[in-house]
Structures are given as structure tokens and as C-alpha cells.
Amino acid sequence: MNIFRLTGDLSHLLAILILLWKIWKTRSCSGISGRSQILFATVYTARYLDLFTNFVSVYNSVMKIIFIAAAFATLYLIYVKFKATYDRNHDTFRIEFLLAPCALLALILNHEFTILEVLWTFSIYLESVAILPQLFLVSKTGEAETITSHYLFALGSYRALYLLNWIYRYYFEGFFDLIAIVAGIVQTVLYCDFFYLYITRVIKGRALKLPA
Amino acid sequence: DEKEMRHDEL
Q1: Which one, of A18, A22, A61, A19, lies nearest residue A37 by Cα?
Q2: Which value does ipTM take for this structure?
Q3: pLDDT tens across A106-136, in order?
Q4: Which of A2, A102, A124, A125 has its CA at 20 to 30 Å from residue A176's CA atom?
Q5: What average pLDDT does this structure show over A126-147?
Q6: Do B9 and A162 touch (CB under 8 A)?
Q7: What is the DSSP string of A26-72?
Q8: A192: burial class by Cβ within 10 Å (0-12, 13-18, 19+)?
Q9: How far is residue A36's CA from residue A14's CA, in Å, rounded to a whole number?
Q10: Which candidate, A163, A161, A94, A154, places its Cα nearest to that of A129?
């Protein structure tokens, strides 16, 4: 465990908690893409099936359980509890266009052709693009609440910090995983535009409104 | 091994 990995994990955890807190506190999930949240719940479920096969550490297992539980709690809040506030008219990104290519790619490019390894690979590919429905929703409405932009910033930073973690692991442990690295780069690049807006607007105390 | 190192990450 290095500092990049730890801050990456904490940033990821923070993102998930910010989202839950925002929905709970405002009693509303407006501005949040339920479709992205479906994809994230799929990602965690597919990836963390290894909870049943590999025990790594208490930290590892606890974090995985929190991620899965939080993902389903978020879905519950969006689709059941605060259903009336869900922005379904703007949340129209077709997720099958992400799910199908990721599934196909995972079947072709994986480390090992076993159910668990293919699902693990699928989750890595899917995670890299899972934010697209959310970014699409923000671009469609042209704005995001400040708390939603904090959520997106924490979530985007997490994979960027993982990239630093992989550079560190390559140099100091001789370890690298090309599938995760390439997907991680794609994932981080997708946030770049948002990072720019976040730094130039939100940090200066302005709302995140997209340039017309 | 390599597989364990991968599954160690979140």
C-alpha cells in the first residue's frame, strides 16, 4: 500500500459518501444519473465477487463491502425512495451501448478465460466509461450543483491517483497490469474537461455552468 | 503472484 493507492481509495470512498449524503440531505437525486449508478453497481458486483474466492486483508474486504452496499443504497434512493425527484427526462444515455462492447472486449482481452477473471476484466472496462451517462446528463442540463461537482471531482481523482499508484508499483514492485492501466487512462481522460471546469469555476466559488 | 496483486486493488 503506497500513499497514492491509499489517497485514491479514500477519494473513492469520499465520492460515494458525498453522493449518498447529498441525496439524503436534500431529499432529492435531481442532477444525478441513475444510469451511471446502475453501471457502478454492476462494476462493483462483477469485480468484488472475488470476496468469496480471495481473501487479501480486512481493509480490502471492508472497502469492497462498503462499495457494494453504498452502490445499492444509492440505487434504492434514486429509484425507490426519492423516485419523484429523479431526472429521468434528461438521463437518457443508452447504457447498452457501453455494456455490450465492454462485455465483448472482456471476452476477448482478459488475463484468464474463467468466469471470475472475465467478470473482473468486464468491471475494469465498464468502470472506465460508467461516468458517461452522468457527464451526458450534466451536459444536457448545462449545469451541476456544487455538491454534485465535488462528487465528480472526488470520483475522477480516484482513478488519476491510481495511475500514480501504478507508476509507483511499476518502479518499486515491478508490477503492472496493462488492462487496468489502459482502462484507467481512458477513465481519467474522460474527466479532464470536467476537471478543467471544476478548477476554473467551482473552486473559485462559482456554480458549475457549462459554457453556452 | 500477479493475480493476487490485481485483486488486492479496489
Answers
A1: A19
A2: 0.94
A3: 999 999 999 999 999 999 999 999 999 999 9
A4: A102
A5: 96
A6: yes
A7: HT--TT--HHHHHHHHHHHHHHGGGGTT----HHHHHHHHHHHHHHH
A8: exposed
A9: 17
A10: A94
Q: Please, which residues 37-96 of chain A have a Cβ atom closer than 8 Å to chain B?
A: 50, 54, 56-57, 60, 63-64, 67
Q: Looking at this protein, which amino acid is placed at residue A9?
A: D
* Phi (first) and psi of residue A54, to 5 degrees: -120, 125
pLDDT of A212 > 80? The answer is no
Q: Is B6 in contact with A162 (Cβ distance < 8 A)?
A: no
Give residue-wise pLDDT tens across range A77-95.
999 999 999 999 999 999 9
For A100, the grid coordinates are 455490450
Burial of A51 (C-beta count, 10 Å sphere; 0-12/13-18/19+):
middle
φ, ψ for residue A6, nearest 5 deg: -65, -45
Residues of B in contact with A165 (CB under 8 A): 9
